[in-house]
Task: structure prediction
Amino acid sequence: MLVDRYGRVDPDELDAAITDRTILVSIMLANNEVGTIQPIAEIAEKVRGHRGVLFHVDAVQAAPHIELDVRSLGADLLSIAAHKLEGPKGVGALFVRHGTHILAQQHGGDTVLENLAWSCLHCNKPAGLRRVGRAPSRQSSLWATMPTNRIN
Ligand SMILES: Cc1ncc(COP(=O)(O)O)c(C=O)c1O
Result:
């Protein structure tokens, strides 16, 4: 899609660009190079008008700087990355709105607990993102299923 001279996506143009082949709209909330903040809530409203189209907000660059409220943004999915929030590289968190149907591409793996632990620790940091789970304790049966995991 084209953007205006400030790098802004026009919600009406986006609305018109959605076809019956569209399954996902993904927009960067804040651009770290030119400083544009997209009209996410307005875009979300347009996307909601199209049944079966999911709305993903890439909040990676925004998270360290502006408040994130997934409700007022209207996001079905919202991603943040740890390394932009003084966390480790290779770790992130995806907010999935309750009732949003997506399938995991990967299950398990060595980093699951680290990812989960990071999410637990940091999901409170950007306001509006809620803690979604707890890391399993060493005694739990979930811990036993992940022998390669460790607590940093
Ligand atoms: C908009 C946006 N999304 C996501 C990312 C995260 O990408 P990566 O995890 O590959 O650094 C970046 C990184 O700079 C970014 O600018």
Notes: The chain has five helices and four strands.
